[in-house]
Every structure is written in structure tokens, then in C-alpha cells.
């Protein structure tokens, strides 16, 4: 039987996992089956007690349909540029909260990186693992990452929860964290269409004992959505979808055109 070393560790005993046939196993004989789509579930039952398990089918499909249309291609390119400028070809990359792998796949196509993604949503990983056979994907929590201490050169964290102390644990001493976050004016016109009193985003800039912000690339441009499907898909992929009442949601149902500002920050952090 051929054994391949995985990027992941066993969630039970924290030993290295190896891939053999259709499962992952550690030397203590803990085994985890690989799903038919190609991801492995490393989420322990006590970690899955949260009410929501990440993005559901509807959000995942909406995001995939929206991203496929290329509206966030400039962000995808900006992330790839930061990766190529800061990593060598053998680097180990972990995409935390990777979703359907839109950014994971773009980064994987740049070089021979050893890249894996984790997400708490099986629905998202179904897409990611079907599309990107060259990457490893695991269902896991960002707050209990299935990576060994000091084993990762770069964490990608795109619009996903950040667990800084676990990020710091898994990064090598010279490791980096690349985050994409919404900036002040992100989706402003969508919020104006929905709410009587819209609020701007308040981006958090982190500079503490764990991470030092070394550069920020700001991206701001307008996208023109010319059908209701695109508008609704964008809405469904945001946290506003589950927070907005029926009356306000109705305002979008008759809209067929909307020009919207997208405003991102791509932040590069060094581990302290
Ligand atoms: C806004 S989406 C971003 C997905 C992807 N990075 C992208 O930009 O296309 C946030 C992702 O974080 C995942 N997520 C939410 N809570 C999580 C957690 N505690 N651990 C891991 N992933 C989580 C969701 O399932 C979802 O796929
Ligand atoms: Zn084990």
C-alpha cells in the first residue's frame, strides 16, 4: 500500500496523518475516510456543537455562481501577487475558511506550493475538493486547526474567521498571514438599497504580540450587476442575508440593475 504524508495532523492524538487509498490514518490507528468528493472530515464532535456549521448550501451555491462571473477577479489577482512576491515554490500554504476554493485554486496554479484548505462547511468543501484534485481539503474549525506546530509557511484567510493564537501556533517562525477583509465602502450601494440607515464597515487593523501588519493593498472598484440573479447571489453570500428582515429583503427582489462599490484590503502580516 502507498502512503503519502498529509498536510494534516490527527485531531485525536495530534500525530501526523498519512493518506492511503480512501482514508487518512495516524500511527495510532485513528482513521478518517475520504468522502466521495475528496475531502476528509477532521471535525471532532465537541467542535461541531456551534449552532451553525459555516456556510450552508444556499450561500455556497450563490457564492460559487457569483465568483464564477469574475466580479472578484481583481482580488484573486491581488492575493496571487502577494503570494508570489513572498513565497518560494516549496512553500506550505493553508487556506483557512477556504469555501469553494476560488482563491485556493488560483494560488495553487501559480507554483508547486503544497496547498491545503480547511472549512467548517461540507457544502463548500464538496465544490473545492471536486474541482481541485491537487489540493487537500478537510472539514475543520479555524479555532482548532489540524496542522502541526510550526508547519506552515503561509496562511490565507479570505473573508473568513481568524483564530490568531492558533494561526501563530501553526506558522513557522518566518511564516506569514495574508488576509482579505472588507474595507469601509464595501457593498455600500447594496446596503443603501436594503437599509434606511446603512453603516460603513469598520476594518480591524491588527498589530499585537502575535502578528505585525507589514503591508496593506487597498482595492476599490465598481461592479455592474445587470440581472436580479447576480444581485441576489451577492446578497446571499454576505452575512446580511440571514440578518435582514423580509420587508427589507423584498426591496431587492424587483431590482434588475445595480452598480456596487467593492472595497477590499489585502493585508500581509508577519508572525512575531
Ligand atoms: C465569506 S466565506 C469565504 C470563503 C472563501 N474564503 C471565499 O472568499 O470565497 C467564509 C467561510 O468561512 C467558513 N467558516 C465559518 N466559520 C468557520 C470556522 N469556525 N472554521 C472554519 N471555517 C469557517 C464558512 O463556511 C465559509 O466558507
Ligand atoms: Zn491519531
Topology:
Layout: E1 4-9, E2 16-20, E3 23-25, E4 31-33, E5 40-41, H1 57-68, H2 73-86, E6 92-96, H3 102-108, E7 114-119, H4 122-131, E8 136-139, E9 152-158, H5 164-170, E10 171-182, H6 188-194, E11 211-225, H7 228-236, H8 240-243, H9 246-253, E12 258-271
This protein binds S-adenosylmethionine (SAM) and zinc ion (ZN).
Zinc ion is lined by residues 10, 12-13, 15, 26, 28, 30.
The fourth-level CATH homologous superfamily of the largest domain is: Vaccinia Virus protein VP39
> Largest sheet, if any?
8 strands, mixed
Assign the CATH architecture of the largest domain: 3-Layer(aba) Sandwich
Please write the string of helix (H) and strand (E) elements: EEEEEHHEHEHEEHEHEHHHE
Shape: globular
Neighbour order of strands in the largest sheet:
5-8-7-6-9-10-12-11
Task: Summarize model confidence as the mean pLDDT.
Answer: 94
Number of strands: 12
Determine the fraction of residues in helical runs and give it as a percent range: 25-40%
What is the third-level CATH name, the topology of the largest domain? Answer: Rossmann fold
User: What would you report as the Rg, rounded to the nearest angstrom?
Assistant: 19 Å
User: Into how many domains do the coordinates divide?
Assistant: 2
Query: How much of the polypeptide forms β-strand, as a percent range?
Result: 25-35%
Instruction: Specify the number of helices.
Output: 9
Poorly predicted parts: none
Bound molecules: S-adenosylmethionine, zinc ion
CATH class category name of the largest domain: Alpha Beta
Amino acid at each position: 500500500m502507498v502512503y503519502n504524508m498529509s498536510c494534516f495532523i490527527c485531531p485525536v492524538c495530534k500525530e501526523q496523518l498519512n493518506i492511503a487509498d480512501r482514508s487518512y490514518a495516524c500511527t495510532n490507528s485513528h482513521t478518517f475516510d475520504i468522502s466521495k468528493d475528496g475531502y476528509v472530515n477532521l471535525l471532532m464532535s465537541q467542535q461541531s456543537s456551534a449552532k451553525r456549521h459555516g456556510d450552508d448550501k444556499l450561500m455556497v451555491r450563490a457564492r460559487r455562481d457569483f465568483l464564477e462571473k469574475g466580479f472578484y477577479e481583481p482580488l484573486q489577482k491581488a492575493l496571487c501577487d502577494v503570494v508570489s512576491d513572498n513565497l518560494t515554490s516549496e512553500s506550505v500554504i493553508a487556506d483557512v475558511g477556504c469555501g469553494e476554493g476560488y482563491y485556493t485554486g488560483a494560488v495553487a496554479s501559480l507554483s508547486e506550493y503544497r496547498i491545503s484548505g480547511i472549512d467548517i462547511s461540507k457544502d463548500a468543501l464538496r465544490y473545492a475538493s471536486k474541482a481541485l484534485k491537487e489540493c487537500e481539503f478537510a472539514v475543520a474549525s479555524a479555532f482548532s486547526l489540524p496542522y502541526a506546530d510550526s508547519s506552515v509557511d503561509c496562511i490565507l484567510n479570505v473573508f473568513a474567521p481568524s483564530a490568531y493564537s492558533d494561526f501563530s501556533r501553526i506558522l513557522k517562525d518566518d511564516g506569514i498571514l495574508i488576509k482579505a477583509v472588507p474595507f469601509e465602502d464595501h457593498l455600500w450601494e447594496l446596503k443603501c438599497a436594503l437599509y434606511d440607515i446603512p453603516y460603513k464597515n469598520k476594518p480591524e487593523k491588527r498589530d499585537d504580540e502575535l502578528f505585525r501588519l507589514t503591508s496593506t493593498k487597498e482595492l476599490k472598484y465598481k461592479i455592474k450587476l445587470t440581472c436580479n440573479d447576480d444581485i441576489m447571489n451577492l446578497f446571499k453570500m454576505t452575512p446580511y442575508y440571514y440578518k435582514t428582515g423580509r420587508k427589507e429583503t423584498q426591496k431587492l427582489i424587483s431590482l434588475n440593475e445595480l452598480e456596487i462599490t467593492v472595497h477590499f484590503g489585502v493585508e500581509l502580516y508577519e508572525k512575531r
